[in-house]
Amino acid sequence: MEAAFVYGTAYQFVLTTEIALLESIGSEDIERAHLYFFHCNLISDLTQQCRRTLMRQPLTTLNIHAFVKTMKAPLLTEVAEDPQQVSTVHLQLGLPLVFIVSQKATYEADRRTAEWVAWRLLGKAGVLLLLRLTSWMTVTLQISNIKHLFPFRKRDSLEVNIPQHTNVVFRRAEKEVPLEFLVLTDIDSIISYVEDNVEMEENKDSDVEDPDLDIQDDEVAETVYRDRKRQLPLEVTMELTEETFHATVMASDSIVLFYAGWQAVSMAFLQSYIDVAVKLKGTSTMLLTRINCADWSGVCTKQNVTEFPAVKMYKKGENPVSYAGMLGTEDLLKFIQLNRISCPVSITSIQEVEEYLNGELYEDLVTYSSVSVLGLFSPAMTTAKEDFTEAGNYLKGCVLTGIYSEEDVWILANKHAATLPALLLAKHKDGKIESIPLAGTPAQDIVQIITNALQETFPEITVENLPTYFKPQKPLLILFSDGSINPQHREAILTLVAQKHLDSFTPCWLNLKNTPVGRGILQVYFGLLPPLPLLVLVNQHSGGHVFAFPSDQSITEQNLALWLKKLEAGLENHITILSAQEWKPPLPAYNFLSMMDAATSQHATGKAPGRMKEIDVQENDKERHEDKLTVKKEPVETLRIKHWNRNNWFKETEKSLKPHTEL
């Protein structure tokens, strides 16, 4: 299905489970899946059978991609240059090249032989017809005088140093491997030699302990495959269809999971979704449902679902609310629980305000929202109230928001030293209430203010929240601890924060018991796991330097301040430098991002890329004489997988309204 989404505009994809059809095609083992490529563009009479090519490799995403790429490549190409200098898509995909050496006297027979070999080796190796031109004409003859005879790669000299009796040249995909000059008597000998060597290389690769490229590139797919036999209690959620969708969401408040059964991320998130349903069973009035968009694509399209997985909340009389948080159990549970009330909630009395700010009004929801947000407005402040309401609607499921706009609002303003319109941020953990003026503040800025308030001053870093604190691109001041941190260490760092000494850093701590990956991080920094607790400064965004607080000093306010001054003065030596590692494609042919960039560039300029002239045996004689310097650009479609950053809610929302694709 992933291949169909990428190549569906260029090829017709067909799925069948009919045994009779499989047997008629000639599948060797109908108990397992097979993928055939049918070359139906070569026939004009519908009564004729299409030539077909069987994919021999396992059905993985990368193998299918490589298979389709070889089907798109020219079946046979004529060249007149050193075989070591030839480059084709087969080499990029890790496949060998077979050169059939041709002479003038035997050209037609050699070409027919090469075509037969090319069909037999399609998907296993690239086949080229190597023209031994020095036996046809003088080497010094200019290319311009003979280029009308056949297309080939331009070189200053046409002389190729090949042993006289060689009729096949074999080139392996690995670099620095010498050419093999062979004398083979028939087509079967060529096929056997190539297949034996390809099988040998595959066996050699299977002995290597490195992970498979598919698994290495997609750990989510690996996890789903590993848990494929895990039985989920799907009965705790209602499965929707095209017939039941509208009746269900109109009859009751519902949560709907839109997923694709063939996609790894969807199936991984389905487990979290079921976990949430189990936790809410018997306690929530919200109906949890799911619909497989692979089966009911029409419903998902009408609901404007353009990415999988997606979660939407449907309430009577309200527009659907999309979930845009982490794809995990806890964040989704928080989203559902906080949406039990319609935010921003309207508060009508000062007593209610006090209960709301103290966490008593919605006591059962305080555990899901560490901050209660209240907007204070006089009745005449219509525009300011509209902006705050817009921000509150946008933050549904993320934080509790309320609004107070009565005549006696000035009493609250005087109590909290606030200038109307104002924002009150009640942080339940600290028991503090902060006031922020909102005069002339647009909705997106209000969202940013509230988002910043949700971040802790000295947070515990986890895998889930690291991107939030990493985004400001400040150096991370991390206190590594094997358990809860020492209260004295916390107090020392919070004191420096209050004194503005750490404004240029992001102070945080990491509990190795809660986040075991911290041990691996420390081993990268130090080689061995050092004694804990340990304070480390990581300047990832500027050179990747890592500094360690002296282990022979206690973590106090004075020692920390002195150490930071030495760092600023350049008097401290780093313990290591983090390399700027890039995630590059395993092979050039798998560089999907460059393909998409090229397609976008071509579409913008209206130009198509040039290429070497080729002889493709799939074309008729008339087409061979046409100019093939331009090729039709193949449109590429990819499925966007959900990616969202809570620190940039409004910007990401605006971008999502524009049509675009991501890999």
Automatic annotation (TrEMBL):
Q: Which residues form the TXNDC16 third thioredoxin-like domain?
A: 75-143, 154-188
InterPro entries in alphabetical order: Thioredoxin-like_sf (IPR036249), Thioredoxin_domain (IPR013766), TXNDC16 (IPR040090), TXNDC16_2nd (IPR057642), TXNDC16_3rd (IPR057645)
Tell me where on the tree of life, at the top rank, the source sits.
Eukaryota
Which residue range or ranges hold the Thioredoxin domain? 237-337
Q: Which residues belong to any copy of the TXNDC16 second thioredoxin-like domain? A: 1-74
Q: Which PANTHER family match?
A: THIOREDOXIN DOMAIN-CONTAINING PROTEIN 16
**Protein name, per record:** Thioredoxin domain-containing protein 16 isoform X4
Q: What is the lineage of its organism?
A: Eukaryota, Metazoa, Chordata, Craniata, Vertebrata
